[in-house]
Specification:
single chain; about 375 residues; alpha/beta; TIM Barrel; 2 domains; 12 helices; binds S-adenosyl-L-homocysteine; binds iron/sulfur cluster
Length: about 375
């Protein structure tokens, strides 16, 4: 085995089995190891008491279970929490992970969503997105993606034992980055999220949000068909080319055909959530709502209208609430279930999709100005 230390967060069950086989161990040790890490939240091999002492020593020598260092942590008055996590690399790279609780804990309607990042920056260059404006620094590794959930679950669990944590019920890839542009690492991470010996989440509770990388939407459908959100933002190619430049490569007819394939043959319950950022005077007219309804046609769809989150230098304004209501009404009249995303964690800049610009500029000042509310 190589001298490199392996971060076990980066392996799904098959990967862990292979790594253990290389150490001359039986494959079922992978199951035990995963249970220690993901059910019990244990990162210290010495505490994994049903493993032999010799295996514990071997693991300690060659492997690690390493969560990223927390650079800052904030808690909003509405319960939203944000962590800025160091991921190393040049210029002290960091990503954000945001926890958004809704409803009261324990009630049937409770939902705790963890919004995770898949890349440092993003190459897609959407014109309304601060992450896009900073370009792509690098892909996160599978370990760095999995570690975000492990870390947050740990931080939110009362006693550190992850099998008792009920805070996080859903995971969405809506932090920094385009998840389907980092496909292999995202897929490995999803496998850990879904594995019964991992986080045991159901496919419906893990959502991949994409700007529309058509070939990878098809691959995901074959590999693990999680829930899907598509960032549409415009119903005609001319405007979408401007807002979401990847549209030039995969225009709306190809994108919508991929959406149709993604939900085909999977029962009536499956739908795609179409995200639509509301930009004042750009994409928020009644006629554009009607075009959107036409585009979605008979697809199993929900629309989520997202009030634009402004950032310094952004060339757009947020649509007025009355305009958002009118747009929503147009869609509802055409029987399209449409929700408006409540802005959460405004006091800590936690809204998904606008995380990074502010973080990096603050990071440049060594995170000056970010109040760390709790250690
Ligand atoms: N790259 C993926 C997932 C991360 S972005 C994607 O684009 O789908 C998550 C969501 O936030 C996307 O729907 C994105 O379009 C939206 N978003 C980005 N910047 C935003 C902003 N300034 N205001 C509101 N929503 C924004
Ligand atoms: Fe990337 Fe999504 Fe931002 Fe577009 S909206 S630049 S795909 S993170």
């Amino acid at each position: 085995m190589s001298a490199e230390v392996i971060n076990l967060f980066g392996h799904d069950r098959a990967g862990l089995r292979a790594a253990l086989a290389e150490m001359g161990e039986k494959p079922f040790r992978a199951d035990q190891l995963m249970q220690w890490i993901y059910r019990h939240g244990v990162d210290d091999f010495g505490a994994m008491t049903n493993l032999s002492l010799s295996l514990r020593d071997k693991l300690a020598e060659h492997c690690t279970v390493a969560a990223p260092e927390v650079l800052a942590h904030q808690e909003s008055t509405d319960g939203t929490r944000k962590w800025v996590l160091a991921v190393g690399g040049e210029g002290e790279q960091a990503v954000e992970t945001v926890f958004i609780p809704e409803g009261s804990r324990g009630s049937e309607r409770y939902r705790g969503t963890l919004c995770i990042s898949s890349q440092v920056g993003c190459a897609m260059d959407c014109s309304f997105c601060s992450t896009g404006k900073q370009g792509l620094s690098r892909n996160l590794t599978a370990a760095e993606i999995v570690a975000q959930l492990w870390f947050a679950a740990h931080a939110l669990s009362g006693n550190g034992d992850l099998k008792d944590q009920r805070a996080i019920t859903n995971v969405v890839f809506m932090g920094m980055g385009e998840p389907l542009a980092n496909y292999a690492a995202v897929l490995t991470a999803i496998r850990v999220f879904l594995d019964d010996f991992g986080f045991g989440l159901s496919k419906r509770r893990v959502t991949v949000s994409t700007s529309g990388l058509v070939p990878f939407m098809d691959r995901l459908r074959g590999d693990c068909d999680t829930a899907m959100a598509v960032s549409l933002h415009a119903a005609d190619d001319a405007l979408r080319n401007e807002l979401v430049p990847i549209n030039r490569k995969y225009p709306l007819d190809e994108l919508m055909a991929a959406c149709r394939r993604y939900t085909a043959d999977r029962g009536r319950k499956t739908h795609i959530v179409y995200e639509y950022v509301m930009l004042d005077g750009v994409n928020d007219a009644d006629s554009q709502a009607r075009d959107l309804a036409k585009l979605l046609g008979d697809l199993p769809a929900k629309v989520n209208l997202i009030p634009f989150n402004p950032f310094p230098g952004a060339p757009y304004e947020r649509s007025a609430p009355a305009r958002v209501d009118a747009f929503q009404e147009q869609l509802r009249r055409r029987n399209i279930v449409t929700t408006v995303r409540r802005t959460r964690g405004d006091d800590i800049d936690a809204a998904c999709g606008q995380l990074v610009g502010r973080v990096t500029s603050r990071q440049r000042n060594r995170l000056g100005g970010i109040p760390v509310v709790r250690a």
